[in-house]
Amino acid sequence: MSSNTKECKQLQPRAIFGINGKVENGVRQHPVTQAAIFPLGNKIAIADFKNNTQEFVAGHTNSISCLDLSKSGKYIASGQINHMGFRGYVIVWDYETRKEIGRHDLHKVKVQAICFTAEDRFVISIGGKDDGSVIVFDMQTFSPICRQPASRAISGNALTVRPLHRNPFFFLTAGDRHLRLWSILREEKKLYAQDVQLASKSRQFYCVRIDKNDEFAYLGSGTGDIIKIVLNCCDKDNVTRPGSSSGILGAFGTHNPRKPSGRDCNRYVNGVRALYVLEGGRLLIGAGDGEVQLVEERTDVPLINFREYPGPTWPYLRTIKSTRVSGRISSFVRSTPEKFYICTDTNEIYMLNIQSWVLKLLRTCHAKAVYFITFPKNYAAVFATAGHESIRIWSSSRKQELLRIMVYNFNCAAVRFSQDGTSIVSVWNDGIIRAFTPMTGRLIYAIPNAHNKGCSALAVASTGRFIVTGGIEGQVRVWKIEPYRQDLVGVLKDHSGPITSLDINYLDTEVISACTDGSCVIWDINRMTRKQVVTANTQFMSVLYFPTGVQILTCGSDGRIIYWMVYNGALIRELTASKKSSVNCLSMNATGDYFVSVGSDLQVKLWDYNSGDVVGVGSEHASSVISAAYSPCGKTFVTGSTDGSLIIWDVPEEYWGKPNPPEGPSYSLPKAASKGKTVAARVDSGTRLKPLAGENINGLLKATPKDDICCVECPPCAKKEGKAADPFTECKIVPDVRKC
């Protein structure tokens, strides 16, 4: 590089949308700072929801599978899942310094669950189905002291672990036909276990909660009932008190007073996934179908009366209040005595006030990968993202989701705003092109069977009169868009693999397509012919036109960014963005001075286009980054990753860009005095035409209340038409012209 290389700065995120809600009991709240702690990919995120700030703790080599915070708030413990044949790490972190203070790799493949015992004395971790062991990590010596198989040969795997509140030497493990109470002997470096007596009941337990007095434990099962057991502990040698054992009191469901006795017991759909024991014997229960209930034990009927009940589950719980959230509930976190955080596997966090029973959606993000990001023309206040089953519109200033358009069971491959902002055009992997209104998400039109194997890329012309789509089969198709009709203009065939990216030049005369077969083709839209082809030994992932349309920029799986000349397809420059991984997406600012690249190495890089230097680097993502978009103002850009997280980055002020070419001095001719009458022009060039009244993306921010999300479900596009009474109607034949 030259001696005048620009200084590389650390890019700072303005806002981060991301959470991994699929980790059971993965969300925690710090008792002092009130910060939320949760896993995100292979990193631990520490988020302050009040100030909307977020930071990461990195150290794991693969996705985090479990997480726990000590009661004092001093330590964080996390475990990971690894590839088959490799070991899973358990790492203990210091919260204040955000640094690692101890680790071990004694588990195979996966760490299933982890917890701190009382007084922050030990860290208990249990392995997955390939490991099946319990390991005790001493927090005084920061080393593991004992290891033992978690379950007997006749029972299943342990799935969760829960410590007692008052005694640091006891804990409880539960799982598939597995429920054991454990005692730690520190001096002898041993573990004693005792199976809890469950009578004839066989359950798969997903969650465990113990009351504050360590007398009873409540377990949520896969059959949808609550198992209550008495612990009768604690004795170090015998685990339970001499002459007694821990055993079941009953399997409880909710009472339905409208049904007769024997049929009045309701169980939770998809099992009980989360529990919390409240004061006064009340329970907060979260089910697998998203139902949240506040229940209490019945006092009108003694428990002994249910021994003759015909079913295995007794209707001993009375429902006080009930509500529902989206997705399976994975975590309950008590923020204040009245407020709870509820996390779901759809990566959403709700706030529930158990006194007023008001449910509020706090944080959202995509449940799966973010495939595409786009901004409207000359409007940086909102942006759209495409993901699994949904298109989402976000506010850059409010840092929240505004609109969600749902199409179930399909993935949105790309989304674009029309030039005037009156529609959102999207392509889906079911082969349908769908256009929606930007404020209400209403379906405007749909083009079925646009591509046989599904759509993969999209470009919209500046006039809005035609769009270009790319398919998985390798074809590029041009569509003419009219208010009441959409027609196929032409099919361009040259590629032999899926189309990954499309871009139209500013004159709407050319479109360039990038493909995984290692070629990029420049097409003439007016003549529907091929103009130029560029090839390289790579799988092209993204392609861009320079704002003036004289050069193109490509990136691919070899980690290189290449400049090409449009006129003759000559290679101008090669930049090495990554030596080990692919570059997945490129996005350039409006002036063409700077562009951003993202890749599978988790890094976001800001480049100077003319010098080819990296001027900024961001490394806040926790998984592969596959999408990016520069804002029209050039002051921010947005990136999305495979775990569903979005990050809005601030661009340093010196890299905002200048007009290209720079604005020169303006000259104006003197106005001549008019002689005689002024006659209005007979021909209207279109400047006096008023825009049609309707929805526009500019009004979405004002129309959406703060902390509110509009969710719209798209209707099915291919409806079966009923057989008409008129025989000519079915064949689309009009025998008489007067009937038209």
From TrEMBL:
Signal sequence bounds: none
Domain of life where this protein originates: Eukaryota
Cellular component per GO, a single term: axoneme
WD repeat segments: 448-482, 492-533, 576-617, 618-651
Keywords: Cell projection, Cilium, Cytoplasm, Flagellum, Repeat, WD repeat
CDD domains recorded: WD40
UniProt main location, coarse: other
Described function: Microtubule inner protein (MIP) part of the dynein-decorated doublet microtubules (DMTs) in cilia axoneme. Important for proper ciliary and flagellar beating. May act in cooperation with CFAP45 and axonemal dynein subunit DNAH11. May play a role in cell growth and/or survival.
Record-stated family: Belongs to the CFAP52 family.
Subunit description: Microtubule inner protein component of sperm flagellar doublet microtubules. Interacts with BRCA2. Interacts with the CCT chaperonin complex. Interacts with HSP70. Interacts with AK8. Interacts with CFAP45. Interacts with DNAI1. Interacts with IQDC.
PANTHER family documented for this protein: CILIA- AND FLAGELLA-ASSOCIATED PROTEIN 52, WD-40 REPEAT PROTEIN
Protein name: Cilia- and flagella-associated protein 52
Organism: Drosophila albomicans
